[in-house]
Amino acid sequence: MARMHKYVAVAALTTLLAGAPTMSYAVSQGEAAHGTDDRTVAAASEAARKAPTPRIVQPGEHVVAAPGFELWMTAEGKHWLEPSLPDYPQFRSVVDGNIDLTQPGVSIQAGGHEGRYYLSGLYYGGKGTASRVVVDTSTGKVHGKLIELPGKPGWGVWYAIADLPAGDTGEDFLRSVTVYDTKGCVYSELRLI
User: Fold this and answer.
1) Residue 12, phi then psi, degrees to nearest 5
2) Is there a contact between 132 and 52 (Cβ–Cβ < 8 Å)?
3) What are the start-end ranges of the E strands in the chain?
């Protein structure tokens, strides 16, 4: 019976992630399901193929996330400008030995300016293809974007912008940053609280 529940849960999750109609079948190993066909399998495969992937940028290509908030990448790491420090480019290295690209991880850099939080960081070491990033805050979830260099560098940059609630200094605002893969599984994660 437990095995049957496992198959139902997996089928329901696959259907949910694929965006297909909410109908599922439970089939024991080696048995055929009544009414299933190749369309169900094809729909799940198509959904995984259509999942977003990081934007590929060339080394040094600037990505403007918002006025005054720019990011760019080189083989050495992530570079960025924030509205509060427009004349001071910042840098986070991927080659200085402070991160292990073979283990899943996420870093975060955050700067506030005029009631907004400018968030970015590195993600690295996960299995599969990174697809999307979600930042959990004290006021809800913020969806960001991903960029990577061409090829398979083993790391990328995520970024997002969040409005700070009135009177919030940002101290307890950020809860976690999670990068998901194209199958909807966790690629890498950082828990802050």
Assistant:
1) -65, -45
2) yes
3) 55-56, 63-66, 69-74, 77-82, 85-93, 105-106, 109-113, 116-124, 130-137, 140-143, 145-148, 155-163, 174-181, 186-191
Residue 43 contacts residue 20 (beta carbons within 8 Å): yes
Q: Where are the domains of the chain?
A: 2-50, 55-191
The residues, any chain, with a CB within 8 Å of residue 12's CB and separated by 6 or more, are 22, 24
The model's pLDDT over 10-22, given as tens digits with 9 standing for 90+, comes to 333 333 333 332 2
Minimal CA–CA distance to 159: which of 121, 192, 106, 104? 121
| 181: β partners | 130
pTM over 0.85: no
- Asked: is 55-191 a CATH 2.60.40 domain? The reply is yes
Please tell me the number of Cα atoms within 13 Å of 181 on its side-chain side: 12
Averaged pLDDT for residues 66-78: 97
Q: Which value, in Å, is the radius of gyration of the alpha carbons in the chain? A: 20
d(CA 3, CA 105): 33
